[in-house]
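Reviewer 2 asked us to include a model.

Predict the structure of this chain.
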Amino acid sequence: MKRIVISFLALATLVFVVISWKHNLTLVHAQNGCSVATLNGNYGVSWQGFDILRAGTRSVPWAGVGVETFDGAGNVTTSFTQALNGKITAGLTGAGTYTVNPDCTGSVSFTSGAAAAETANFVIIGGGTEALAVLTLSSQTVMVDAKKQ
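Predicted model (structure tokens):
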């Protein structure tokens, strides 16, 4: 009888360990991986920093708000209002592409509209609920925050 109880406990322990191990592997995979599909839908975006205007060497303040729409397949569009050196401009747009690495970092490059030539590197946080970015043009020092709507 004692041998049966010990065998049963050993079997139960083995089953528990296998189930736990398999469950943990699934959780690790789901929590650590990102792809272009991680960014999908509309994100409220805001930024602030400084920009050197094309005709000068003096840094001026630059801030803005808008909406960026990621299609989950590597394409992004934006509509925004900006304040550049005190001049407010609304109704601006742009479009481009983005990439995402498995470690949840990535980059975006706008190729058309008022945002054309803007590039940024970002990190996705909260499983795609937010992305933090820094613009990568040498004439800019700008931080960006995008939150899923």
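The radius of gyration is 23 Å. Residues 1-32 form one domain. We have added this to the supplementary material.
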